[in-house]
Design a protein that fits this description.
By secondary structure, this protein is α/β, with parallel strands linked by helices. It contains eight helices and 17 strands. Helix 7 crosses helix 8.
Length: 376
């Protein structure tokens, strides 16, 4: 397995700078376990579900974690990524090598932090001398949404991203990146999912900065994942297990939900109550236990998320799907379109083929699953 196995070329014009409006108009590429791909739209999702299916959705809430301030006469930009409590935060900083313990970073007249330490991993410790309520209020006033670096915004951000980069499920504050598959959902779409006889349940995984960090090791197995905190309540675990026992499919909405489910799953596929951190890194060869389908956006080349979907569908099949998407004008990455991937293996309720007369187009048959290079 080599890092270059997960490379692909994408013209810059395919990177979505803003979400599709209305959200349900976003495109959806079906990647079944076998047979041709099919081009659909998010609005078609309810018709692809079966009564008894269960969507598992991440309800984390993105905080406006990016701050621009001054260190003396110099401009400094930091992105908070871990709350240690008591006003202590870990953060990434542009020009971190110039920062020294004791430096004071001023973000506003009433909002400043002191550099507490620097770590070998490249981040810094910051100390804010504000009570929790005052800190949250100051962050809401002066922070901006921590968009990924490939989405270009003027310094100070775009106010529209405050709503655009937050899912309708957002409840538990703590993420520094959105669980982007959830961005496609609207209340109207959920009503149609319910009318179909399918259900949904929420879990929490606070998406960390590791989702943006590139894999640098030539052998991806040497890459070290950042930990992320997650929660599956006893009630959510029971609903997931009940859905599976009655023959429903478990559909992870986003790679974050998938990683959390797999972190809490036994070999039998039963999901346990979970509260804690996970560093689960899914590579080709991983034996999926908890999910049947994954709804997810298109991911960066050489990323841990591309490695995850390659493990689910097969590397050659995913690369063929991405090539089809690029040639067909799909929009990529956080604000882009989505795909629905069926796990390899026999499914009692596979994704139905496109119906005649729906105006959808099927791609030529891709390579068979399991033929990916480095598939383990």
């Amino acid at each position: 397995m080599r890092l270059e196995d997960f490379a692909f070329d994408l013209p810059p014009g395919h990177i979505a700078e803003h979400p599709c409006e209305p959200r349900e108009a976003a495109r959806l590429l079906l990647i079944p376990a076998g047979g041709p791909f099919a081009d659909r739209h998010i609005a078609d999702l309810p018709g692809l579900l079966r009564p008894g299916d269960l969507l598992v959705i991440n309800d984390t809430k993105v905080i406006p974690a990016r701050l621009v301030g001054r260190r003396g006469a110099a401009t400094v930009e930091v992105t908070l990524h871990r709350d240690l409590g008591g006003g202590q935060w870990r953060a990434f900083a542009r020009g971190a090598r110039r920062l020294q313990p004791g430096d004071r970073l001023v973000f506003a007249e009433d909002f400043a932090a002191t550099v507490a330490d620097k770590s070998p991993e490249g981040d810094v410790g910051l100390r804010f001398d504000l009570a929790p309520e005052r800190f949250r209020a100051a962050l809401a006033r002066h922070g901006t949404m921590p968009l990924p670096p490939y989405i270009k915004r003027p310094r100070g951000g775009d106010r529209q991203d405050r709503s655009d980069y937050q899912t309708i499920f957002a409840r538990a504050e703590g993420a520094v990146a959105a669980p982007t598959a959830g961005l496609h959902f609207t209340r109207e779409l959920l009503a149609r999912v319910a009318a179909r006889g399918a259900e949904w349940v929420t879990v929490t995984l606070h998406v960390g900065p590791g989702t943006f960090l590139p894999v640098k090791a030539e052998d991806p197995r040497l890459h070290r994942m950042h930990s992320e905190w997650g929660l599956i309540s006893a009630e959510a675990a029971a609903r997931i297990n009940q859905a599976r026992s009655r023959g429903g499919r478990i559909i992870a909405v986003g790679t974050t939900s998938l990683r959390l489910l797999e972190s809490a799953a036994a070999e039998s596929g039963e999901v346990a109550e979970f509260s804690g951190e996970t560093r689960l890194f899914i590579l080709p060869g991983y034996p999926f236990r908890a999910i049947d389908l994954l709804l997810t956006n298109f991911h960066l080349p050489r990323s841990t998320l591309l490695m995850l979907v390659a493990a689910l569908a097969g590397l050659d099949r995913i690369k063929a799907a991405y090539a089809h998407a690029a040639s067909s004008g799909y929009r990529f990455f956080s604000y882009g379109d989505a795909c629905l991937i069926e796990a390899r293996g026999e499914s009692p309720h596979p994704i139905p083929p496109p119906l005649a007369g729906e105006g959808m187009t099927a791609a030529p048959p891709p390579p068979q699953a399991g033929e990916g290079r480095g598939g383990g």
